[in-house]
Design brief:
Length: 464
């Protein structure tokens, strides 16, 4: 009875919050958990096949969405916390939204993106078959404490459970989970690529061996601490990958082969290549067909803010969410590979959800753009901390008269779009993202038609 009451009240709360225009998906789930604490484990028992959890610092939303697209392509039913509501409340809400009033509806799969700090709580209430870990970077440490602490929490939570792990073999902070948990692990990783570098200025977290503390040596870096590493002291090195990606091309669409399967995606950037590889690995592990996997990835469209393309007065405008130094550096790498002439708008806020401490912008490397032929012409800094952003860019030696400050998002975006250049990149921290997106949607409505999916593919292919 309490279960039905919990579902009813939460569905009502969800309906009301949508009606009132609140995006909040956490609250209905939290309400239901107060009324009936076992609600999540009860509803998770209606999953007939498997439950998958995806966690890690960057890429979990994209990876989870791609796996969802594959499950859909195979024609299965599933529960998925699509809105990025990855705390216990949000995950509970997604189960309640999917089920009927009696809470008896069955699904084939559940696919859950989980915030790192919530993995231990989640595993107490549900029994996943697979936990996939994408990577670990310093991200909003003021909220979760030290990265080490988070990693240990997850290790403790999975140890002794009947779980298989899917791990990034190229990240030394992820790849050692087998030794520490004794669980069966599957690994994915990239072979040598044309984009590798013998050094990395962005490796802060993974410099030292997790076993002996000795400085790791790298044969090559893919980005940040991801690459081919070994410890000269204790022999710790990349585990052999079960899913090896070869012949990576990003020009700018992503193409590679994994265990003889050809992958094509309209996405850009090495970090997205990793997200795709992670999703493919899990899909192959649980027996999805190659055709379904390939098709789902090829037609997968970027979601709001995780690289969304607008067409405003014939100018290609690309909106990207940046929330930490690693993601920001990856975005700069990506846009420097785009041969189009361009301008760069950056909105930086310091609200709680962005992380109050913005010192991470000093780990963003603008200096490498200096000698790049296709670097942005102008840098327009906006948001609550526009001045800090401008100072940061200036410090890396880019021409001062090309760095502008416009605290108002709208004025800044309009200025960016009015400058000569084929493409405008709009980068935004979390709490400015939806405002930026709304401004771009309005401008697109006023000055241009949205690109169709085919045109998006086309424009990305021909711009190389
Ligand atoms: Zn070592």
């Amino acid at each position: 009875m309490r279960k039905i009451l919990a579902i009813f009240v939460a569905k009502l709360a969800l309906w009301a919050s949508r009606l009132l225009g609140y995006g909040g998906t956490d609250f209905p789930g939290r309400l239901a958990r107060k009324i009936y604490p076992a609600i999540l484990s009860d509803l998770a028992a209606n999953i007939d096949e498997e439950i998958f959890i995806v966690t890690g610092t960057n890429g979990k939303t994209t990876t989870t969405n791609m796996i969802a697209a594959m499950i859909k392509e195979e024609g299965y039913t599933y529960v998925h916390n699509a809105a990025g509501a990855n705390m216990m409340g949000g995950i509970t809400t997604s189960f309640i939204e999917a089920t009927n009033l009696m809470g008896t509806r069955h699904f084939d799969y559940a696919l859950l993106e989980a915030d790192e700090a919530n993995v231990p709580l989640l595993i107490k209430e549900i029994s996943p078959r697979v936990v996939l870990i994408t990577n670990f970077f310093a991200d909003q440490l003021d909220r979760f404490g030290e990265l080490d602490h988070t990693i240990n929490l997850i290790k403790d939570a999975v140890r002794g459970q009947d779980i298989e792990l899917v791990l990034n073999a190229d990240d030394p902070l992820v790849s050692h989970f087998q030794n520490e948990t004794g669980l069966h692990c599957w690994y994915y990783g990239f072979d040598q690529t044309d984009y590798d570098s013998p050094s990395s200025t962005h490796n802060r977290e993974g410099q030292f061996c997790v076993f002996c503390g000795h400085k790791l040596r790298y044969e090559r870096y893919h980005y940040a601490q991801l690459g081919k590493y070994y410890c000269p002291e204790c022999g710790n090195s990349n585990p052999r990958a079960n899913f090896i990606a070869k012949n990576l091309r990003m020009s700018p669409a992503i193409q590679f082969e994994v265990n003889d399967m050809e992958i094509y995606s309209p996405y850009q950037g090495f970090y997205n290549a990793y997200n795709i590889l992670a999703a493919v690995s899990l899909a192959k592990l649980v027996g999805m067909r190659d055709e379904a996997v390939q098709k789902a990835i090829a037609k997968y469209e970027p979601r709001a803010g995780r690289m969304e393309i607008f067409n405003i007065d014939s100018k290609k405008t690309i909106l990207v969410l940046v929330k930490n130094a690693t993601g920001f550096n990856q975005t700069l790498q990506m846009l420097s590979q785009d041969p189009a002439s361009k301008n760069l708008f950056i909105a930086l806020n310091d609200n709680a959800a962005d992380g109050r401490d913005i010192s991470w912008i000093w780990d963003v490397d603008f200096a490498f753009l200096a000698d790049k032929h296709s670097r942005p012409q102008h840098y327009i800094c906006s948001g609550q901390r526009s001045g800090d952003m401008a100072l940061r860019i200036k410090y890396d030696g880019l021409p001062v008269d090309h760095i502008h400050i416009s605290a108002s998002l709208k004025d800044g975006i309009l200025e960016t779009l009015s400058l000569p250049g084929e493409t405008a990149y709009i980068l935004s921290s979390y709490t400015a993202l939806f405002a930026c997106r709304n401004i771009l949607l309005k401008l697109q409505k006023q000055y241009g038609s949205p690109l169709t999916a085919e045109q998006q593919d086309q424009s990305m292919l021909t711009s190389s």
